Amino acid sequence: MKAQIEQIKINAKEEIQNVANLKDLVDLKVKYLGKKGELTSVLRGMGALSAEERPVIGSLVNSVRDELEALISEKETEFKQIELNKKLESEKIDITLPSKKTVRGSKHPMSLAIEEIEDLFVSMGYDVVSGPELESDEYCFKKLNLPEGHPARDMQDSFYITNEMLLRTQTSAAQARVMEAKGGKEPIRIICPGKTYRREDDATHSPQFAQIEGLVIDKKDKNVSLADLKGTLEVFARKMLGENSELRFRPSYFPFTEPSYEVDVTCFKCGGKGCPLCKKTGWIEVFAAGIVHPNVLRMSGYDPEEWGGFAFGPGWDRITMFKYAIPDVRYLYTNDVRFLKQFDRQEA
Length: 348
Hints:
Elements: H1 2-18, H2 22-33, H3 38-44, H4 53-90, H5 109-123, E1 127-128, E2 134-136, H6 137-140, E3 159-160, E4 165-167, H7 173-182, E5 188-197, E6 208-219, H8 226-241, E7 247-254, E8 257-266, E9 283-292, H9 294-299, E10 307-312, H10 316-324, H11 337-340
Parallel strand pairs: 1-5
Antiparallel strand pairs: 2-4, 3-4, 5-6, 6-10, 7-8, 8-9, 9-10
Helix pairs in contact: 1-4, 2-4, 5-10
């Protein structure tokens, strides 16, 4: 049996020395050292040996196994190094070539606008809150003084998911949620920017658009009035649309405010002289605003005899259009890099 083991060793060493690639080396390892390999077969035959011979043969087999494993490991390292050298040669980088220019992204104009708006209102003591985009009919309409069958619902062609759930048509739904959370006991000063949805699609309207809901609630003895609303909107307009911006309040109707106003701003392009953008009027509608309706206060837990306030709702995407002179609201949602890179504020 010793002669058989020695012959296995000689044959294995010769084959390992002459093996051509890593795959064949693996096959040799299986052939000699695997579970059904030649050395393993020798060990299985040791039952026929005498007690004196078994330790001698076992020791010899283990010695040969260790020697072959070392040779195979050395050969494996050699093949891997050869393979690595080939990869380094074929995949090397010519550092003398000019590099490709990295295209750097930039913030979306609506992101730039809302960051500026939020900074402004936070400096005025407002909190920034959010609300769900999939809203219930109760919060989107009923708690804003629009019960079922109310004609004002016809002005908002909505995306209903179920009979009671819809994609919110206005961020005003956040009003009721915040007032409920305060339990009718605390003053409120918030803005709620977010996406809203209606069945509209033209140069100035999109099925998905963005609004900023503003709400101020305080005790009646604090005298939160229409003058405060006007002053707030003037600061907003002059900061976002230019220092020379003037406001015009036109009486209107909204179910959740009383009195209600459409608020126009002098055209940022012509300065109020009249141009095609403002349809020769010198004014552009920007805000819907008014004093919070007593029913809205009452339904959300506030006593209208003790509490009052105002609400306003500029279009976030419309503000962005005016600020950056964008002629079509649909440009904001097409994700055209050629359009978006115009608003990169960082030096190239």
